[in-house]
Amino acid sequence: MDRSESMDDLDLTARPAPTPQRPFLGMTLLLIEDSRFASEAVRLMALRSGARIRRADCLASARRHLGTYRPDVAIVDLGLPDGSGLSLIEDLAAGSHPPAVILATSGQARESVEGDALICGANGFLPKPIESLAAFQQAIMRHLPRDRWPRSLRVVGAETIEPDPLALSEDLAYADRILADPQVTPAYIVNFLQGLARTGHDSKLLAETSGLATRPAPEIRPRLQALIAERLDTTRRVI
C-alpha cells in the first residue's frame, strides 16, 4: 500500500470473498444449541466452510450474543432449557436487521415441528443428525442472496462429519445433572435425549424415550435416570 494513501480510502468493513472451497468465508454463524455433541458437528462443518461460529446454549445466552453483533446465519434448536426456540426465530425474523438465513433444527420428528418453525419465520429446517457437509452447505446456500455466493461452486461429495464421542459423554452428564433440578421439566430432558439419540444413531434410546414425555413426572424421572446411567457407562467404556 502507498504510504501516502489515507486510511479513509480503505474499506475496513470489507469481508473476504467466498471461494468454492470455503463458500461461507467472512460469514458469522450463531448456533443456538444446548447439545455439545450436536454443536461439535456444526462447528466442524462451519469451519470447513470458512465461517466463524459462535454458540449459545440457551435463549438468554443467545440474546446476549445478539446484543453485541449480528450474525449472517442463525441456526436455532427448537428445544432449549429456558424455552422454545420458536420465540427467538420470531424475534430474529421480525428484527430490523435479521440474519440472511435463519434455520431451525430439532431432534424431534421433522413433521411435528418444521411447519411451526417456518410459520415463525425460519427460512428452512435442518433435521438432526446434522452430519452431511453437502446438506449443511446447501441448506444455507439456497437462502443466501446470490451476490454472496462464490463465483463458482464446487461439487461436495458425500463427506460426513463425526463429532467427538467425548461431547456425547458431556451431554449425558449434563442430562444427569439437570434431572435432579425440579425446575427442569422431564419433557425437556426427554426431548434432549431424543436429539442425542438421533445425532448418535441410537435407535434403542430413541425407542425407549418415545412416549415418556406424556407420562406422570414421578414415573419419568426414575426411568430417565436409568437410561442416562446406562448410556454414560457405555460411552465412558468406549472413550
CA-CA gap between termini: 52 Å
Number of H- or I-type helical stretches: 9
How would you name the CATH homologous superfamily of the largest domain? Response regulator
Highest-level CATH class of the largest domain: Alpha Beta
- The ordered string of helix (H) and strand (E) elements is EHEHEEEHEHEHHHHH
* Overall residue-averaged pLDDT value: 88
Please indicate the percent range of residues in DSSP E strands (runs of 2 or more): 5-15%
- Runs in which pLDDT lies below 50 for 5 or more consecutive residues are 1-12
- Share of helix among residues? 40-55%
> Would you tell me which CATH topology of the largest domain applies?
Rossmann fold
Give the domain tally: 2
| Strand adjacency order, main sheet | 2-1-3-6-7
CATH architecture of the largest domain: 3-Layer(aba) Sandwich
Q: Major β-sheet, in short?
A: 5 strands, parallel
Radius of gyration: 20 Å
Number of strands: 7
Shape: globular
Q: How does the helix and strand content classify structurally?
A: alpha/beta
Primary descriptors:
single chain, about 240 residues, alpha/beta, Rossmann fold, 2 domains, 5-stranded parallel β-sheet, two-stranded antiparallel sheet, 7 strands, about 10% strand, disordered N terminus
Task: Give a quick summary of the entry.
The chain has 239 residues and is of the alpha/beta class.
Describe this structure as you would to a colleague:
Helix 4 links the parallel strand 6 and strand 7. It is built from nine helices and seven strands. The longest helix is centred in the C-terminal third of the chain and has 22 residues, at 217-238. With 239 residues, the chain is an alpha/beta fold. It folds into two domains: 28-148, Rossmann fold; 165-238, no CATH class. It is globular, with a radius of gyration of 20 Å. It has helices at 36-48, 59-66, 85-94, 110-120, 133-141, 165-178, 186-199, 203-209, 217-238; strands at residues 28-32, 52-56, 73-77, 79-80, 83-84, 101-106, 124-127. A five-stranded parallel beta sheet has the order 2-1-3-6-7, with helices on both faces. A two-stranded antiparallel sheet has the order 4-5. Helix 1 runs antiparallel to helix 6 and helix 6 (165-178) packs antiparallel against helix 9 (217-238). 45% of the residues lie in helices and 12% in strands.
